[in-house]
Each structure stands twice: as C-alpha cells, then as structure tokens.
Amino acid sequence: MNGIPSGKARGEMVASSTFNGRFALVIGGSGGIGRAVSLELVRRGARLLVHGRQAEERMKTSSPASLSTFDYAFDSPRNFIQALDARLADMRAEPDIVICAFGPFSEKPLEMVSAEEWEYLTMANLALPGAMASHFLAGMKARGYGRFLFFGGTRTDAIRPFRKTAAYAAAKTGLGVLAKSIAASAGDRNVAAVVVCPGPTDTEYLNAETRARHASLTATGSLLPAKLIAHASLDLIDADPCIASGAIVALDGGFDPESRR
C-alpha cells in the first residue's frame, strides 16, 4: 500500500482535485514530509512555490514547469516574509494554499534548553506559521478561498507532558489555537485551516540510530512513509467546502510510546 487510492497510478494527475490550477506555497517543502507534500500537490494540479535550503538543487530532479523554488535560511518571521514577498512579487502571485511543513526539532530535557533555543524553536514552529496566516489571511478572504495546513509534532494534538521535547512540543501544540482561530474568523469567506500531527515518519533527516529507536516505539515496529502522511493530510483540505476546518488530526495510528517501553 502506498497511500494512493486504487485506480490512480503514481504520478497520474488527479483531475477532480480542488487544488487543480491553485497556487500553493510550501514552507519547508524541499525535504522530509514537506517534499512529499510538494510532489503530491503537483500531482493534484497545483502550481507551487517550494521553500527550503537549497530548494532549487533538491527539487531539480522532480521539477515540472508548475514548480518554482524559494531558497532561504530561516532567521526570523519578519525577515522571512520580507524575502518571500519579494519572490512572490517577481512571480506576480499570492498563495491560495499555505502549507507549513518547516519545524526545527530539539530533543533534550527541559532544564537543558537554553533561552536561545526557546526563542528559535518558538519562532520557527509557531511564530512563523502565525505570521504567515496573518500575512495572507486578508487576501484569501477577499478572494473567497484559502487553505492552511500546519504540521504539528507527534502527540501535540492535545496538551501533554513531554520529558525530552517540551520546548518543541509546546510550540507545536500552539498551532491548534492558530488553526481554530482561522476557522472561526474566516470560515464564512471559505478560508480553512487544519493541523496534522504525524506519528514517527521515515525521512532523510533521521540517522540510522534515531530511525531504529523511533521505530521501536511504534506498534508495528516501523516508521510511517512520508508519502502516506502527505496524501492523507492534503485530503483533509482538498475539499470545497472544507468540513475539516479547525481540526487537529493525529495521523499516528494510535501511537502510544509509553505502552512500548
């Protein structure tokens, strides 16, 4: 199983997608789950601007004419949006769909997290998605269409304690407030937002030791394919009207690491 419904071959265009002809911006779209999302959006007929470090280099082997790139190393939401606006002005485009798959991760006990790490993790994982929503929401409302998809962390679909990832998880948990606020304030203008919290996923960012350790905590002993997460996540917002708006969805197969210890 590859997560693609029967009758749709890998790479085949999805003619019935509501994304067909829409313009999507994918933050963190050149690697990991973000890359899988970018490729699935192309399959659904969207035009893309894919952000990432070395995005042009990383996407060149799978870059159709509908895909453009934005290479930028994140430093602050303000600087990021200024650089992004310049790129969008060159393209003469505003996004109909904004997807935030960027999210620096930190795994260490709470007492070992520095003030600088707190600032960076919060800015990258919460302030950047929030600033993107504030920046593009008015235009989406005026056009009568908009979709936001935010990627949370594993088990950040509710307020929970975390022994080794508290700073990262605290920022990611806040995305639920953002999505529900967009849904409440802009639903009447056909603007929707969803948060997806994937389970342990197999990406190129994991080394062999981390991959094995994370897999050992799952019920199946294996990691989730990024393509499956991408497909299921986009299905949640690939609808008009979007009845999933405001949802915080755990795509983790009932992941419960405590039961595996």
Automatic annotation (TrEMBL):
Domain of life of the native organism: Bacteria
Keyword Oxidoreductase: yes
Keywords carried by this UniProt record: Oxidoreductase
Gene Ontology MF annotations: oxidoreductase activity
InterPro entries found in the cross-reference section: NAD(P)-bd_dom_sf (IPR036291), SDR_DHRS6-like (IPR051122), SDR_fam (IPR002347)
Pfam families reported for this sequence: adh_short (PF00106)
Similarity annotation: Belongs to the short-chain dehydrogenases/reductases (SDR) family.
Protein name from the UniProt record: Short-chain dehydrogenase/reductase SDR
Record organism: uncultured spirochete
Native organism taxonomy: Bacteria, Pseudomonadati, Spirochaetota, Spirochaetia, Spirochaetales
